[in-house]
Structure prediction request, 324 residues.
Amino acid sequence: MSGDDKDLFRKRILVTGGAGFLGSHLCERLLDAGQEVLCVDNYYTGRRSNIEHLLGNPRFEALRHDITSPLVVEVDEIYNLACPASPVHYQFDPVQTLKTCVHGSINMLGLAKRVKAKIFQASTSEVYGDPLVHPQPESYWGHVNTIGIRSCYDEGKRAAETLFFDYHRQHGVDIRVVRIFNTYGPRMHPKDGRVVSNVVIQALKGEDISIYGDGSQTRSFCYVDDLIDGFLSLMNQDKTIGPVNIGNPNEFTIKQLAELAIELTGSKSKLTYQPLPQDDPKQRQPDITRAREDLGWEPKIQLREGLGKTIAYFDRLLTERIAV
Ligand code: NAD
Ligand code: UDP
Ligand code: UDP
Prediction:
């Protein structure tokens, strides 16, 4: 194919939240596939250092913008990832979190409707709340507190899903909705307060490991590269399907995760126990039957390998004394 032909097939893709943990990996993968990427971010939790290596690419453009305000651009596809994802970040300004989920989604859906772009929503396993069904299939409606400290995120993401499906039914917008389960890997924010970043940094520094509750609650951790494979595979489906769980079904207790981090870092850190936060889900594991059957997707990287790569990333941040 000549250079001119490649230009004809190249897509212009908007990634909101593109300077964040997941967004920066997605931008990188889309550029690797030859696409043109417009990264839109208000740098609330995103960092310029996450996209620094992409700035020299002529097919990459970064725009500082808050998606709660309208955005008029011409694009072929939209990945809507903008939203703080960790409890410490989304609870810092809960009203802004809800506005980002609701007003932000309305703006991105209005944009998709006008330019007839396919649009992808980063939803979350949090739509299942503290689940009463285990593992969670997409058909489960969830168990969510409407007025708790996690509600701004959980209910915001639920409302966003409703908006996506209503824009699809009412206006024919071509949508894709992924429900992401706990994901980890390089470029996680070192101060996001999440269990993977906390325990790895504490283990590397030889500090006490903070276990909330007795550490018997479970999560299923997906490595970022596997997750992005799932995103691309869902976006490239030829039609709208229901929401799809993407996550790694291998479930671990928080105590097991901490012990693995200690082992892999060779740390002398000891486990310490602190109170469990309000509404903290007791267990979480994706049922990925739909992803397996409809996308032919399943995760390839298991916790030991992925945690090793994540430890190497945090070790570099500590060595270079970057914001840790
Ligand atoms: P992140 O905080 O690293 O990235 C979110 C990005 O959105 C940041 O760069 C932030 O600055 C930007 N942002 C926030 N509000 C914005 C606004 N109003 N306008 C423009 N930009 C805004 O988090 P992440 O882990 O990369 O998560 C990305 C998406 O995936 C989020 O929508 C999150 O809810 C979803 N998700 C993530 C996980 C996970 O385990 N990481 C799990 C479930 C869902
Ligand atoms: N919107 C946007 N960019 C566009 C088109 C629309 O940000 O290119 C916003 C617009 O400001 C509006 C929202 O998307 O608030 C929803 O648009 P829609 O057309 O659905 O609704 P309406 O404009 O009729 O309120
Ligand atoms: N957690 C913990 N120690 C920490 C941070 C988190 O024990 O330093 C627990 C937290 O209470 C929860 C689990 O680990 O039960 C996962 O927390 P995270 O914030 O990573 O994700 P989420 O709760 O959103 O799934």
